[in-house]
Amino acid sequence: MEYVKKVGLAFLFGGAVAMITEILFQALAFVPVNPYEQSLLALVSVAFLGTLLQFLGVYAKFVKIFGFGAMLPIAGLPPAIAGAIARLRGENAPTAQIIKKGFLPVAYVLLFGIGFAVLYAVILTLLI
Question: Quick one: how far is CA 15 from the chain centroid?
């Protein structure tokens, strides 16, 4: 029974993160950017929020309660990238554009993810 509870909690947390990200994505529809840039803004915002929650000591509690569901919400990134690449190939886009559109989200996630992690480590080091 404990296993079912843990799986359920992981599912609920991952779903909640996805729902919050979707709400953010829809709210960004009012920003004058194309949908591709809108999704990048949503990803960067979620990465920033996760870093902020980690800094405040909240995210570690989420991981303790919700387990892997709190550690893996970004798992949808590879399928999203693959879908974008498939769509561009279907539109007969130039290969260079397909590569750029395919790898740009990865670059943003890595850049901001590493950047937020370093910022978190620096701030934490200064506070200790």
Answer: 13
Q: What is the DSSP string of the chain?
A: -HHHHHHHHHHHHHHHHHHHHHHHHHHGGGSSS-HHHHHHHHHHHHHHHHHHHHHTT-HHHHHHHHTHHHH-GGGGHHHHHHHHHHHHHHTT--HHHHHHHHHHHHHHHHHHHHHHHHHHHHHHHHH-
pTM across the whole model? 0.58
Taking only the tens place, the pLDDT of each residue in 94-119 is 888 877 777 777 777 777 777 877 88
Kindly report the length of the chain.
128
Q: Do 98 and 88 meet the contact criterion of CB atoms below 8 Å apart?
A: yes
Neighbours of 37 (CB within 10 A): 14
For the chain, what is the largest distance between any 2 Cα atoms, rounded to a whole number of angstroms?
54
